[in-house]
Design a protein that fits this description.
It comes from Dorcoceras hygrometricum. It is built from 10 helices and no strands. The two termini are 33 Å apart. It has 353 residues and is mainly α. It has one domain (30-342). Helix 2 (61-85) packs parallel to helix 9, helix 3 packs across helix 10 (337-346) and helix 9 (283-335) packs antiparallel against helix 10 (337-346).
Length: 353
């Protein structure tokens, strides 16, 4: 970007959705309190481990993979908590079911959007493979094809993924749903809603980072305030401030991408392009060509491996969310009446990978 981005204002301007889910005077049994504390303490540990050691680590594919691994672990933690609460599906209030199913559909949509962007980047990788293949012979007759592939890479990587626009609107709607339903007569329900709030906040934060990395814009970064009463609040606010500040700083000084492996590959491709402009090489350019080709090859390998690993974690996240949703729907079918109440608004949505 040619100029620094203004700090993004918090999305949450619609009242105070961060009130305590457990109001003053509420009491939990020792067992429930232990389950809740264990969940929140574990969430704090996961956030602490995720914080990049150095600014340079922010938005490397390796760190984004770690972020997705952490997100998978956190969503597995909430499934474990639900099991430990021994809260029968018949005791779930309709509004809890609506929130859970609506959120899960939106998370699946986001996962699909991110996976489509990774797939698009992999398609661009094919152009670079053609470049390396054409230059491997060392014959200047292959330069025309190499130039064509480099042009194809540049055009492809500069194109936009329209599916990301859908992802942005879905994320905005999730922010509007952060305010969990009030729970009046169920201590287990209060624990569940409080834990789910933490999962949603961290999920939105990580998804907003991916959105910034893939879209080429920091506009969708989220600055989410969290009350200090949550045991994970301190670690969350620390990593959010660290990562968001660094991303905005990077965007203020770069015009192409902040995904660092992608930027490295593009730089190596641009370095190679002038060398293959002519159909013949003078002797002192031969060594330059070989070194530039090797540099591109090394960067492409790192980039490709990172995309493969990120794809695996995105698929794992999709499956974790999908299986949790399917398990609830399956139990609702057994209950019959409860399922009929939510089927019309949730089960008619088709998911296409």
């Amino acid at each position: 970007m040619s100029r620094a981005q203004e700090p993004h204002r918090p999305f949450l301007l619609f009242g105070n959705p961060f009130r305590m889910i457990l109001p003053k005077g509420s009491h939990l049994s020792p067992k429930l309190l232990a389950l809740l504390n264990n969940f929140e303490e574990t969430l704090a540990v996961r956030l602490k481990k995720l914080k990049p050691a150095e600014k340079e680590d922010v938005l490397r594919l390796s760190w984004m993979i770690s972020a997705m691994v952490a997100l998978c672990e956190i969503h597995t933690d909430i499934k474990t908590l639900i099991t430990a609460l021994e809260l029968p599906v018949s005791d779930w209030e309709d509004k809890w079911i609506d929130v859970y199913l609506a959120n899960s559909v939106k998370l699946l949509d986001i996962g699909i959007s991110f996976s489509s962007e990774v797939a698009r980047l992999k398609q661009g990788h094919l152009y670079l493979q053609c470049v390396l293949h054409n230059l491997s012979s060392g014959s200047s007759s292959q330069f025309v094809r190499a130039r064509s592939s480099l042009d194809g890479w540049s055009k492809h990587i500069a194109s936009k993924n329209l599916r990301l626009d859908n992802c942005f609107s879905v994320m905005d709607s999730l922010v509007q749903m952060l305010d969990e339903p009030k729970v009046k007569n169920s201590s287990k329900g209060k624990v569940l809603m409080r834990a789910m709030y933490g999962v949603k906040v961290v999920t939105l934060f990580i998804c907003s980072i991916f959105a910034a990395a893939f879209s080429g814009s920091p506009k969708k970064l989220m600055d989410l305030p969290v009350p200090e009463s949550y045991l994970w609040a301190g670690e969350f606010m620390a990593i959010q401030a660290f990562v968001n500040t660094e991303i905005r700083s990077i965007y203020s000084s770069r015009s192409f991408t902040i995904l660092k492996e992608l930027e490295d590959v593009d730089t190596k491709a641009k370095n190679l392009y002038p060398i293959v402009q002519e159909d013949g090489l003078v002797p002192n350019e031969t060594g330059v060509l070989k070194q530039s080709t090797l540099d591109l090859k090394n960067s492409v390998e790192i980039f490709s491996e990172g995309l493969d690993d990120l794809t695996k974690e995105l698929d794992r996240f999709f499956q974790i969310v999908l299986t949790g949703r399917d398990a609830l729907i399956s139990n609702l079918r057994i209950g019959g009446d409860a399922f009929d109440q939510v089927r019309s608004s949730n089960s008619g949505k088709n998911l296409v990978r």
